[in-house]
Amino acid sequence: MRLQVRHSTGYSYDTEVLSSYNEARLVPQTGLTQLTLSSAVTTNPDALQQRYWDYWGTQVTVFDVHVPHTELQVTCTSVVDTAPAPAPGDPTWELLAASSDEHIELLRPSAKTIPNDDLKALASDAQGSPRDVVLALSGMVKDRVEYVPGSTGVQTSAVDAWQLGSGVCQDIAHVTLSLLREAGVPARYVSGYLHTAQEPVVGETVSGESHAWVEAWLGGWWGFDPTNGIPAGERHVVVARGRDYNDLPPLKGVYAGGGMQYLGVTVEVTRLA
């Protein structure tokens, strides 16, 4: 499937900002099931850009703005070929234990995935092979944490969302990560985009927001979307991976000037072929 993604975001300010220093994580990755054919980041005001790959393998666009401005707009337009994901593996617990040193950062709780006693108990009670545990725990999260847009914010933790019983896709991913890591399965947070139509029509554009899901290590990385209860597949476009949302915010920076107001996010996804 060939998908075009247009992601626009930014900030407005109460008074003129004289300088701002920014990082954007918006460029889709190339990997085994995804090939980025083109990607362009534009800013308004215009700014010289540099790019680097961070510790987790995400491409970061860095830019500074040194002209007075009251609004910063950042847009990334990308064309990506996606392919079906492989079926999950079914390793033994002994294999996972043997690889624990390699994946230690993705086995320990991160800032947003620290479990409470309830989550620890659920993880310890999970039975079966690693694949069985991944499927059971992710299904449990889908049943318990309802997807409710606007019910939480970027500061919400896995425990907060679990106790509230609702959240957005990043919260559902955080709860799933908390359980999987506590159960002994290496797992990482993935951000990107999802074409929301189950059978995307060529030329049809759908609107949405940035999406988040999870990859578990089952002898190889397997992606699944606990918000929708489906494996990550051709409709998913990967931008960034890390321990949790804190490792890969789409846009962050510092500035000198007045108060700031977030402009929000506009995402358009179109199937091209």
List keywords for this structure.
single chain; alpha+beta; Immunoglobulin-like; C8orf32 fold; 5-stranded antiparallel β-sheet; 16 strands; 19% helix; globular
What does this structure look like?
By secondary structure, the chain is of the alpha+beta class. The protein has two domains: 2-83 and 249-271, Immunoglobulin-like, CATH 2.60.40.2250; 93-246, C8orf32 fold, CATH 3.10.620.30. 19% of the residues lie in helices and 42% in strands. It has helices spanning 93-98, 117-125, 130-144, 158-164, 169-183; strands at 2-17, 19-24, 34-44, 49-53, 59-65, 69-82, 146-147, 166-167, 187-194, 205-208, 211-217, 221-225, 230-231, 236-242, 251-256, 260-271. Helix 2 (117-125) packs across helix 5 and helix 3 (130-144) runs antiparallel to helix 5 (169-183).
Which helices and strands, and how do they pair?
Layout: E1 2-17, E2 19-24, E3 34-44, E4 49-53, E5 59-65, E6 69-82, H1 93-98, H2 117-125, H3 130-144, E7 146-147, H4 158-164, E8 166-167, H5 169-183, E9 187-194, E10 205-208, E11 211-217, E12 221-225, E13 230-231, E14 236-242, E15 251-256, E16 260-271
Parallel strand pairs: 7-8
Antiparallel strand pairs: 1-6, 1-16, 2-5, 2-15, 3-6, 4-5, 9-11, 9-14, 10-16, 11-12, 12-13
